[in-house]
Structures are given as structure tokens and as C-alpha cells.
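So, can you check these C-alpha cells?
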Amino acid sequence: MSLPKIPKVTVIVLTFNSSKYLDGCFGTLEKINAEGLEVKVMVVDNGSSDGTPDEIRRRWPSFEVVDTGSNLGYASGNNVGIRLAIERGADYVYLLNHDTEVGPDFLVEAVRVAESDPQVGSVQSLLLLHPDRELVNSTGNAIHFLGFGYCQDYRRSVDRIDVETVREIPYASGAAVLCRLAALKQVGDFDERFFMYHEDLDLGWRLRLAGYRNVLAPKSVVWHKYEFSRSIGKWYYMERNRYLVLFKNLRLRTLIVLAPCLVLAEAGMAVPAAFGGWWGKKVRALTYFLRPSVWSYIIRERERVAAWRKVSDREIFSLFTPTVRDQEKASLFAEWVVNPLFEVTWKVVRPFIR
């Protein structure tokens, strides 16, 4: 009689000038419960200049440090670790932000959920805020039907959410997620063209298209020192990558159905973009799609997705939302005008999604 296989898990922490976070992240990581697991911790450093790699080697010598030599961004940096884990025969990777602190059972609880169903492709931990440790950062991330991604239940009290039930989510936040490597071998790892923003949304979408599930494991707890970025520069990547996700992963019929909605949304975003100072970033994101090389890439990606797609757009859209809520910079205009318009539009277009 063969003994049960011990799951092999590589925890990947991507660092970049992370010295102020080391005590919290690695100080809690070194104390976790790893019973029943074969765990390795891999630090992928994206060209830190503050001595982060050397300090980790000195203080946590059992953790492997991989130097990339430059800032590759979130997608490429994590892919370095993912590909090494695959080469070494790992079953799972757990991607953990450097600005986090972990609960002692965060990993065993996430793996327990993944092991319960081979169709689970990703498992997000319950992300709470730090230092507001009783408030939610994310209970899984939502996807708006026009491609916007955002945290669910942001800043809600943990007492007001279900912390017992494992449940399906649209996609897992890249800040604290366990990924099944057998699934990533099928759908691919992060799209390195994204550099930052929405790469986790794209991966979660692809997992769903291949028939895998993204779920929340609420007993796996991670605290995130989350800071809402007010940088204008982020808008280029957010808007460009939102369209990349849509163009890569939606069927042509669905894109045609959504086209009028996308045009209207662009018109609606013109005023806040102009007053918010990011109109230039918005224009740059749209003109990115005037390059023939970009469409060659999109066509290749669409063909790759079509080769293993098992799920219809209609089924994918069953997890989407028509509104954007509970965000850092919510406005009355968004709540009382934009969201109601989105809800009406959603009711009109959803029956045509196949």
C-alpha cells in the first residue's frame, strides 16, 4: 500500500527594496505550521538597492534568494520563481507579497482546500488589512463586465463576513494566492507583457476558461500592509491591461456585443481622466492598440486560449458584476449615476452573451 503523497509547495516572495517589510513578512513566515507539507521558501529579488537580498541571506539562511538583477515587474519576477518551482517538481506555488504578515496556518489551510478538489486552480487567503487587522482587504477580487478588477468587501469588518465557508471567487489577488502548477502548465503563467496591474485578473480568467475554479480559503489568513496607489502613472497600465484581458480572453461575438458599452464607458471616463490629471495616460493606453505587433500578439494569445478553452463566456460572466463598489476613492457620482447606468446596461447585454 502506497503512502499518501506529501504536497510540495514553494512559497515565492517577490522583493524590491523591501527592507522595511522583512521583519513582518519573514518573521512570521519562518514560524508557520508546515505539518504534512514539503515547503521551500524562495525569494525572488527584483534588483533591490537597499541590501534586501543580503539581509535575507544573513537572517534567514534556509530561504533561497534568487537575484534577477533588475526590476522585472510583478509578472516576470514571479514567473522566474514559478518556472524554477516547476523544474524542481513542486505541486503548488504560493505567491506572497513582501508587505504581508501571515497567520501560522495560512499555508496548510490553503493547501487543504486545493487538495480537496483537483479542479481548484487557485486558492486566495483571506486578506485582512494591517495595522487595521480586523478589516478586510480582499475576500477575493471582483471582475466588472467591462474588465475592471477590484477587491471585494474592502474595509468591511471581518465580523460581518463568512469566515467558515470555502467559496468560488472571480479571481484571486496576487498578494496571497496558492496556484496549482498542473493548471499553470496548461494555461501558462503570468503574461509578462502586463508588467504590473491586472496580471492576476488575467491569470484567474484563464484558469476559469480552462475549467478550473478560483476559491477563497477563509481560514487561511494573511494581513496586508495595503496602500492605495495615487500615482497617475498607474492608469496607463490599468487601462491598457484591462483591454488586453478583454481582447485576449473573450470570444469575438462577446466583444462585438460589448463594443457599444466600451465606447460609452470611454466617453464617461473622459471627464474624470481630464480632471484627475491622467488623460494623457488614458490616451497612451488606447493608442497602444494601434501597433500591428500588439494585434499579432493578441491573435496568438486568442488562438492559444481557444485550444484549451472549456467554458463559455456566458458561464464566465455568471461571476461578474455590473457595479464597482467598496473602493478607496468611491464618489457619489459613481454610486448614484455610474453604477445604476452599468446595472441597466448589464441587464440589456447579458442575455446576448454566449
Q: What stands out?
A: The mean pLDDT is 94.
